[in-house]
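Page 42, continued from yesterday. The earlier attempt failed because a stray header line got pasted into the input along with the sequence. Redoing it now with the clean sequence only.
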Amino acid sequence: MDLILWGAFPYVVLVLLISGLIWRARYDKFGWTTHSTQVHESRLLRIGSPLFHFGMAFVVVGHVVGLLIPKTWTDAVGLSDHTYHLLAVSTGSVAGVAAAVGISILVYRRFKVPAVRQATLRSDHLMYTFLLGAMALGIVATLLNSTGATGDYNYREGVSLWFRSLFTFQPDYALMGQAPVAFQLHVLFGLGLFLLIPFSRLVHMFSAPLKYLFRPYVVYRSRDPQQLAHRPSRRGWERAGS
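This time it went through. Structure tokens are written below.
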């Protein structure tokens, strides 16, 4: 079971993610959208959306630092385990709370506002389930690990090493098999979330307005007063307010 879950399943998710994005980009270009419901309600959206997106951005950065940067690197720059843990927990807690509050507002809005609820897709229900599950399990795993409920387990010597081993195509699945259940469930929900990206509104995270950076400038020309002087007056039905 450990071999299937932590040795094979991550690569299955990666293959389906890449192939799904290629299929979506080729055959569903007009469906590659956030399916925005701002026209139905904007007050709650203006509060929940920035909280969630900025919070998640910092959560992702924290995961990248925690999973990809080896412990030996932080030790080399003189950052002790205690200091690293304090920085990770403090910054991660703020980002996690912001993201959790933001997604709570968005979920409340989606099911409370009738027009937004009617615009909700079936994939949204599954996406919100995995998203909320991954966030809740991440918070639970952090709390359990911080309070010592998971013993002396150090995810930087377990989950992080397993994650980096995936890039060498030699997954050390035994490390994840020894991880606390909260960490295992958090990773499974995270993998499930990545699996849903090509088939839900989450696909918009791979969109970037790159063409906007290279588009030609919009040139505004002022009107020549002499041309305006010789311009024939508008007829009655063409005048503003007629």
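Notes: Residues 81-112 form the longest helix (32 residues).
Reminder to self: strip header lines before submitting.
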